[in-house]
Specification:
heterodimer, A: 85 residues, mainly alpha, 2 helices, B: 286 residues, 16 helices
Amino acid sequence: MNNVTELRNQLSEIFYGLRAKTVDHRDASQFANLAGKMISSAKVQLEYYALRKEQPNIKFLVSEDGKTKPAINIPVKTVSTGKKK
Amino acid sequence: MELTKKVFRTEEAKRAYYDKRNELRRTEEFRAKRRATRDLVKNREYCRDYYERNKERELQRRKDYRNDPKNVQIIKDRSREQYLKSGKAKGLEAIKNLTDNYIKNLFTSKGNLKCKDLPKEMIEAKRLELLIRRQVLDEMTPQQRKKLYKERYLAKNPNAGKDYRNANKERLKEAAKLWKQKNKEHVREMQNLWRKENKERLRALERERYHKNQEKFVEKNRKFREKNRDKLRIKSKEFYAKNKEEINAKRRNITPEQREHINALARIATRKRKLLKKEKQNEQRN
């Protein structure tokens, strides 16, 4: 799970597994805990960059195309892509 | 209420009169509303004064209205409508449906993040996580759920259990006593079970205790024997008389090694006795 998309896919698989009772609820709860921690760590990173008013490419939030999904609309001074608002 | 009944010549005249009156009322109502909005402050003051003047009568009227069985359903429906219109119901619905705004609020409520900073993927991942958590809770047994909630509560308040026990110490003791009195047999069974399971552990603990306080125990035993010599002799004689055959059979089955050990102990005892006799005799001579 290097990506949010991968994490999401994994989560959806586990959710359907839980409903079909192919996944044990203990394992699922452990996985949900782990996912929560990953998301909260990403949130902290986002918060940090929002306070610094930067818009870097966070690896965890970057999709396969190489773009963050969706574009973070922070009023930016220095943008990595070079565009100016 | 009309005090006097109107009499009409024809039904048409009657209908025309009532139509006109209803129209007038409608327009009057509209005018009244307009007036009320225009002179809101004045109206409010007037209402307050009116209420203070006729407080008891108004309260009684309200009570009568509520207690009337015709109005029970009306009041319920009205309150339901008001609840559905309120923000609380909307909020609960948002939690139930895991709307985007609710999840965004989870991220933004504690911290400096804003809604526009959040990528869509993260919101969807969070939604799935919450869904899994809910599904897990649904699949748990009530006991497991209770345990989980307890763990969560204790993680937030680690000293909660201690505080509660300290606050209700006497009450809990009394409750435990009462429970034990009511369930005596169950308690006995549990104790026996525990002893059986932890037999070796208990033995080891007793051995340790004995070795630590050996001198104390030996002295205590000696004192007890001195005090109750006659009683013990009688008891031992009785015991021997009862179990004579068994004891003799055991004596016959003793191995030569055991025999030697017993003889050695007996020799030591006789030597001690002789020495004590000699000492006593010397003391008497002196």
